[in-house]
Amino acid sequence: MKKYNLLSIILLGITLSGCEDTKKGENTIFNFDTSKFAAKYQPQEALTLAILNPESKKVDSIIYYVNDKKIASKNNLDKLTFELKDQKLGYQNLKALVYYDGENSEATTRVELVSNVKPKLLKYTIVNTYPHDTASFTEGLEFYRDTLYESTGQKGSSFFRKYDYKTGKIYKQVDLDSKYFGEGITFLNGKMYQLTWQEKTGFIYNANTLKLEKTFTYDKDIEGWGMTNDGKYIYQTDKTEKIWKMDPETQKMIDYINVYSGDSKIKSINELEWINGKIYTNVWQKDAIAVVDPKNGAVEGILDLSGLRKFVKNETAEVLNGIAYNPKTKTIFVTGKNWDKLFEIKVSE
To answer: Are 108 and 95 in contact (CB under 8 A)?
Structure first.
């Protein structure tokens, strides 16, 4: 078995995306010529876009769009070569607006763009092991000013707290209203942002006092899962393969990437952490972490943490979830939902 396939099994397992047919447009006048389309494309490749004209209409011009962005205009039925190198991974929605006989008509289709990056298998060493509250259904984990903060889920028992990770001593805890299922947190510009699961509600707190300053509603119909930031923007997950990019000032989603490991879509990505320009993400139901390029969604590395399970003693322990980078020690802290231990690790290739 190739190393690449082994990595996919470690990370993906049940999350491999199935083969999907190219979606053909329903237009009866013009259609894209998909006869030579591949099932999947990689960023170094190019598409040849051509329009079929079965009724032999007199075509004046064609405007081509990719993901609703105009890319070119052509006269008559001239073909177009479109390079995929600058596109984000995932489905590319193609549209041709065809002008003919004083009228116009649309043709649509789509192709899937997958990653050409072969993820590296990362290694880790355990630096320290600390106690972890088994009542904590961990959803978010992050350091702020050398102090560890953790948010937890479950309706009726969701909270977030700041505490001494070495001893477990709680400095402050804030309980959520019982109608909320707490999710990821992140600190940015003196604020702490927090998501909830299916309530489509987020909270903004003063980072120093942890007092609630604002409640906001998601501007997309999505769930709230993991959260992190790059110092300017916030990134969050929603149980799919998407990582959304949010403007912290307006709480509006301004972009997203789709996460792919090779030609496989990675669904159910969860807790996030921004580490040295990359996004580290837990994958739900997998004791593994994917290292993602935030520019295009390509998985560049896979950290198999299944070996930590032998150190977790409580029978109620659930999936690995929670990644916190400590810039002071340059180590990563990981744990899981209801785990009895918090691990400090160092990662290398």
So the answer is: yes
